[in-house]
Amino acid sequence: MNKVCLCIQLHLPAILRQYRFFEVNKNDYYYDDCVTDSQVDQFYKDIFVPFFDLVTKLSTRAKSKIKLGISVSGITLKLFKKYRPEALVTLDTLHQKGLIEFLSVSWSNSLVAFNDSSLLKEQLLLHDQFIQHFFGTTPKVFMAGRHTLSAQSLSVIGEVGKKAVVRFGTEPDKDCDYYTTPGCPEMWFADQKLSRLVEKQELALLSEKNNSRPEKLLKQIREHAQSTPVFIEYNLAQLGEPFLLNRSYFWQTLLTELGADSQAGFVLPSEFVGLSRNSSGNGNNERRVSGKKGKNLWLKNDLQKEAFSKLVLLNEMVKACDCETLVRDWEYLQDKEYLFYMNDRFFEDEFASQHFNPYQSPYLAFINYMNILSDLENRLLNRIRKNEFEQHQLYSINFPSN
Amino acid sequence: MRVLMFGWEFPPNISGGLGTACLGITKALTAYADIDLTFVVPKAYGNEETSRMEFIGANEIDLIKSKINQERLCDPYTYISVQSGMLPYVDPVKYAEVIQAKSNEAGKDNEVKSRKVTFTGKYGADLLTEIHNYSIIGEYIAKSGEFDLIHAHDWLTYPAGVLAKKATGKPLVIHVHATDFDRSGGHVNPDVFWIEKQGMEAADAIISVSNHTKRIIVEKYGISPEKIYTVHNGVEPVAAIANPQKKEVKTVTFLGRITLQKGPQYFIEVARKVLQKMESVEFVMAGSGDMTAQMVAMVNKYGLTDKFQFPGFLCGEQVQEMYTRSDVYIMPSVSEPFGIAPLEAMHCRVPVIISKQSGVSEVVKHAIAVDFWDTDAMADAVYSILKYSKLKNMMVKNGTREVGNINWDQSAKQLVRVYDKMTKCA
C-alpha cells in the first residue's frame, strides 16, 4: 500500500447578526459576536481539542508518524485569536513537532477571489502573512478543494510562490490548459471518493443508523492506494457535532491502522506532491481513479448566484475604495460559508440536521446576507463619492479656474 | 366499515376552514370502497356536494316520527310545524263559513303532523343550545343505523359524538380542527373548554391537525399523547386566474377572518414598516370578523388609508382573483391549528409568509416561517420578496411543486389507519 495524505480543513465563519432591511444605511455592524464566541468555543471544546488530542496521543504510539495537512483560513485564525487563543498554541505545537503542515488557502474562505486575480493574490498573500505571523512558516501547497481554477488563478498561485496545487477531480477543467499555463504550479488531481467515504461514515455515526466501523473504509483506502498515494480531505468544522466516543473510536482506528500499515504511513502535503511526481513520472500527474465532481454547494441555486453577483460588484467597488474599515468588513463578508447556508440541501431534513446553519431556511440566509451586502454597497458608494469629491476639491485648489 | 360523521358546516355553506376540511376529508374517504359514510350537519341546504355518501341535516329529522324525547331538547328554540291554519283573504261572510267547516273537521285531522328542530348551522348567540339539540338528534341517528365508528369534527359536534358513543358503544374518533386556546388567544370560554375536554376524554382516538395542536391538547387539556394522532390537512388545488391584468403596484395580501386568532394587527404593523421603505405597494386585508372596525381605525391612525384595502369576505372565484393579484401572502396567525389558505396561495403561485405558530409550518419548507409577533422579520421577508425577483421566483417554483404533493388522499390514508385500529380494538 502506498502513502496517505490526510488534510484537515478548518474554517469557522464570523456569524452574522440578524440584520433587517430598515437598518440599511443606519447600522454598519454586521456580526453577532456573542453567537460567534459561543460557536468558536463549542467547536474548540467539542471537536478541536478531542481531535488534536487524539492526533497527539497517537503520534507517540503509532509505528508510522501521523502527519496532517491543515488548511485554516485567516478568518478562523482571527476568531481563534479573539476567542480561543489556546487553539493557536495547539496548532503551533503540532507544527513544531512536524505533525502538521499548513496549506495555502484564501484568507477569507472566498469564492469571489477565484473570479479576480488581484483579489486572489491579496487573499493568498494575506493568508501567508498570518501563517508566518502565528507559526513562523509559509505554506508551499495550495489547497484548491472543489474550486474550478482558471489559468489566471493558477498563474497567481504560482506567482505567490506556491509549488503545487491540490484539487479534487479526475481531470483538468475544460477551459483551462494547466500544462501550457505559464508559471503554473504542479497540479495534483486528488480523488474525492475517499474523502466522501470518510464524510459518509461520519454521518452514519452521527445519525446512529448503523454501527459504522472503519474496517470497511480501511479496506477501500488500501484498495485505492495499491499503486498511487491517497489523498483524503476532511472538514473538521463542517458537521458541527461533538467529537463523541464513537467518532473518537472511528478516527483512532483509522489513524492507527493506516499508520501501522507496513508500507503505508502518512505524508505531509508537500511530500505527497513529490511522491505523486515520482509515481507518475512527470510533474503533471493525472489520476485515473473514479470519482465524480463534488456537488456545488456554494453556487448552484438562483439565490446563491444572485448573492455572488453582488459580491462581484462589491469587489470592484472595494478596489476603488481606501477605507480600512470597509476593507475589513469586505474580508469577512466574502466568506463563501454564507453562500453555503443558502444551498438547496438545507431543505432536506437529514442534511439540515447534520450541518450547521444559523438560519432556519436558505431563504432567510439569503435575506439577511443581502441586507448586509446592500448596506456595505451603500457605504462603499458613499466612500467612493467622498473620495471623488475630495479629489475634485484638491484639483480645484491646485488648479483654480481663474 | 360504516362511519357516522358529525360536522357543523359543509361547502358551499361555510364561514371558515372547517367545512372546507370536511369536504376534503369526505371526498377522499369515499374513494375507499369499503367505507360507507354518513355525514350529519345541523342544517342541510340541499346544495351541498354530497355524492357517494349519505348527507343528513339534523333539521330534517322529524321529532314525532323519531320518537325523540322532546323534553331533552331546549324548547324555546324548537320549531313546530303543523298544517297551516292561515287563510287567504276572504270576506266576513265567507270567513264564517270556512271556520264552521273547519271546526266540523276538528278531531279528524287537527293533530300536529310533524315537529322538527330549527338549526341555523351558524355560530350565533344560541350556539350552545344548538349544540345540545344537535347532540340529541345525533344520538338518534346513531341508534337508527348500524355504524361501526363515529367521527366528530370540532368541538361543536363533540357532544353529539359522545352521546352517539354512549348509545351505541361504538368507538369515537374526534377530530380537533382547532381548540378554544387558538380561537380566543388564550382567553378561553369555560363552557367551550369543558365541551372540548369532555369530548377529548370520551374519545377513543383524537385526530389533531398538527403537532402544534397536539401539544395544546396534551398541555392544556391533560390528554395522554398516546391516543392522539396527528393527521395534517390536505388542500384542494386552486388555480390562478389565467392572463391576469398587469399592474404597476405590488400587492401584499391577508385573507382570513379578521379576529384575534388570525393576528390582523401584525399585518398592519408589517405594512407600516414596509411602506416606510417602499412606495408602490398595496396591502389588502380580505375577510370579515369582530376586529374589522378596529383594524380600519388602526390603518387610519397610521395614515395608511390610501395604501390599504378592505374588500370584505371573499368566496369562490373572488378568492382565486385575490390570490392571482397577490405578490405575497401573509398568514400572521397567533395560533393556527393548521391553515389551509397558505397552501391555496402556493397553488396560485404566490410566495407565502406564515406564522411559526401554525400547523402548516410543519408541512411546508418553501414558505418563510416567522413568529407571529416578529413583525420585523415578517416585514423583512415581504420587502425582500418584493425586491429580489430571484427570491420570489424560487419560492414560487419550489412552493408550487411542494404543495402539489399535499392532498387529502394522504390525510384519508392516515385516517383509515386510525379507523382500522379503533374498530379492531372495539
UniProtKB/TrEMBL annotation, chain A:
* Keywords assigned by UniProt, alphabetized: Carbohydrate metabolism
Which Pfam family is an annotated match for this chain, by its short name? Glyco_hydro_57
The UniProt entry's sequence similarity note says:
Belongs to the glycosyl hydrolase 57 family.
Which biological process annotations from GO are given for this protein?
carbohydrate metabolic process
Q: Which GO terms describe its molecular function?
A: catalytic activity
Q: Which SUPFAM superfamilies match?
A: Glycoside hydrolase/deacetylase (SSF88713)
Asked whether the keyword Transmembrane is assigned, the reply is no
Its source organism is Gaoshiqia sediminis
Stated name of the protein:
Glycoside hydrolase family 57 N-terminal domain-containing protein
**Where is the Glycoside hydrolase family 57 N-terminal domain positioned along the sequence?**
7-166
Tell me which InterPro entries the record gives: Glyco_hydro/deAcase_b/a-brl (IPR011330), Glyco_hydro_57_N (IPR004300)
Superkingdom assignment? Bacteria
UniProtKB/TrEMBL annotation, chain B:
Annotated Glycosyltransferase subfamily 4-like N-terminal domain residues: 142-236
Entry annotated with the keyword Transferase: yes
GO terms (BP aspect): lipopolysaccharide biosynthetic process
- Molecular function (GO) terms listed? glycosyltransferase activity
Query: What sequence ranges are listed for the domain Glycosyl transferase family?
Result: 244-400
Presence of the UniProt keyword Transferase in the record: yes
Q: Which PROSITE patterns does the UniProt record give? A: PROKAR_LIPOPROTEIN
Keyword terms: Transferase
- Give a Pfam family name: Glycos_transf_1
In its UniProt entry, what is this protein called? Glycosyltransferase family 4 protein
